[in-house]
Design brief:
This protein is α+β, with helices and mostly antiparallel strands. The protein is built from 1 helix and 7 strands, in the order βββββββα. Strands 1, 2, 3, 4, 5, 6 and 7 form a 7-stranded mixed β-sheet that branches. β6 and β7 form a beta hairpin.
């Protein structure tokens, strides 16, 4: 993901459900943001689609010094295979980044973040 500084697994409920920690790098003088996400993966019975839903759980861990905890995040991926060699991904990301951020910085992540993330995903999928 774009500007991700670190992320790691906190608790695995099953192969299709887990909690993870993520920290996003923010340029100075803004503090980095962190979040705890509860992620669930849903497959259809014929493996033709995949739905991934993630929600912030801000109270799961105590706040870390020097970071602003993201109070609300909803992440949604809907993945299908229109043909054997292509995939279609609908990605929806909603968040309250917490603290006070200038509009230009929020807009930078809103516009550039998904583009850069999917560009990197495309590189990984070609390997």
């Amino acid at each position: 993901m774009y500007n991700n500084k670190t992320s790691y697994l906190l608790k695995r409920i099953s192969a299709l459900e887990f909690y993870y920690y993520t920290e996003t790098y923010m340029p100075w003088p803004v503090s980095n943001r962190d979040a705890i996400i509860h992620l669930k993966i849903y497959r259809d019975s014929l493996n033709r689609s995949l739905r991934i839903i993630g929600n912030a759980v801000p109270g799961y861990l105590p706040d870390k010094p020097g970071k602003v905890r993201v109070p609300r995040t909803t992440i949604s991926w809907y993945v299908t295979m229109p043909s054997p060699k292509t995939i279609s991904i609908t990605y929806i990301f909603e968040a309250n980044p917490g603290g006070s951020l200038p509009a230009w910085l929020v807009n930078l992540f809103a516009d550039k973040g998904p583009y850069e993330s999917f560009k990197n995903l495309a590189v990984l999928l070609k390997k």
